[in-house]
Design a protein that fits this description.
about 15% strand; about 40% helix; Ribosomal Protein S8, Chain: A, domain 1; Hypothetical Oxidoreductase Yiak, Chain: A, domain 1; three-stranded antiparallel sheet; about 350 residues
């Protein structure tokens, strides 16, 4: 399994994107965002997504060099369309527009429809916190097939529908970023486990007969199994809320079989951006958050646990380690990356050389 420096991985991803028709600027953003997910320990949303992007490109379902279109601009309400462009560009542009509205109005309710895969939603929360804002995100997806079974059901009916909230850093603590799938694990983590040939934890998957299994292959072999929501009925309920708020309310649509084209990964997202200064004194807010986070983290660690962490801490630890030592890429994912590069016309030998 190769371990590759982040800078080199960014270059390889960008070269694949350029070969697929992206401008230099777009290719750089794709590489930066995908490798950024790997650095934070989320290999599920990292460079391993690029083969799926190349497939969507070749079927005309992902369109290079697209930008956000404003469908409606109505005070604090902003409705946007991503034009099936790379989510790594569309997400950033959408957030820039929403941030500008929130700074002017104190609040922005932003819907984004028809973006290709938005990647790690936490990246867009971090973009808001960089500007001193709090952001809340609900996301749904329309993919080539459903992935997740409803609570009490035995086959897949929707996808992993992420939820995210991001809060700016305080004087005493780094920003807090809760970024999660509404399933126990993200589909990308199932893919990573499948590629590595390892089992998943209990209560993540069911087989085609509805029986619980640890084998990630049930999501790749026919007949397929399904993923399970986190927290049983609670995660299931939150996933349905994402379908309503992100899918139906944006106009992008909820997951229905007739909307799946077999090749693309289309995301819709509803975002609320809040300027805390419009609700309270920021100094007092930061003091309150600092006191509460410190109180929580002072809980004695449970047996086998090094420390109590807040959302965002595991990603910061992973980034420090991987920036220092490189990003591990399993052999199957690397081979898929090489083949994706060949699909867009790159020389195979030159593609493989990126791992050297």
């Amino acid at each position: 399994m190769p371990t590759i420096a982040a800078e080199k991985l960014e270059g390889f991803v960008a070269e694949i994107a350029r070969a697929g028709g992206s401008s230099d600027a777009e290719a750089g953003k794709i590489g930066h965002q995908l490798v950024g997910a790997n650095l934070r320990g989320h290999d599920s949303h990292g460079i391993g997504m690029m083969p799926a992007y190349v497939n969507a490109l070749q079927f005309g379902k992902l369109k290079p060099n697209q930008h956000v279109s404003v469908v409606r601009d109505d005070g604090a309400i902003l409705q946007l369309d991503g034009n099936a462009g790379y989510g790594q560009v569309i997400g950033e542009e959408a957030m820039e527009k929403g941030i500008a509205v929130a700074k002017a109005q104190g609040l922005c309710l932003m819907s984004l429809r028809n973006s290709h895969h938005l990647g790690r939603i936490g990246a867009w929360g971090e973009q808001a916190t960089d500007e001193g804002l709090i952001s809340i995100h609900w996301v749904n997806a329309i993919t080539r097939m459903p992935l997740v079974a409803p609570h009490g059901g035995s086959d897949a009916r929707f996808t992993t529908n992420p939820y995210c909230t991001a809060v700016p850093a305080t004087p005493g603590h780094p920003r807090m970023v809760l970024d999660m799938a509404t399933t126990k694990v993200a589909m990308g983590k199932v893919r990573v486990a499948h590629n590595k040939g390892v089992e998943l934890p209990p209560d993540c998957l069911i087989d085609p007969d509805g029986n619980r299994t640890l084998n990630p292959s049930v999501m790749f072999d026919e007949p397929r199994g399904a993923m399970l929501a986190m927290g049983e009925h609670k995660g299931y309920g939150l996933a349905l809320v994402c379908e309503v708020l992100a899918g139906a309310l944006s106009g992008g649509g909820s997951f229905l079989p007739e909307r799946s084209d077999g090749h693309s990964i289309i995301n819709n997202m509803l975002t609320i951006l809040v300027d805390p200064d419009r609700l309270t004194d920021r100094t007092a807010l930061m003091s309150e958050l600092d006191g509460f986070i410190s109180y929580v983290k002072q809980s004695p660690p449970a047996p086998g646990v090094e420390e109590v962490m807040i959302p965002g801490d595991p990603e910061r630890k992973s980034m420090a380690e991987r920036l220092a030592n490189g990003v591990p890429v399993d052999d199957t994912t690397w081979e898929e990356m090489v083949q994706a590069a060949v699909q867009v016309g790159m020389d195979e030998g030159k593609a493989r050389a990126w791992a050297e």
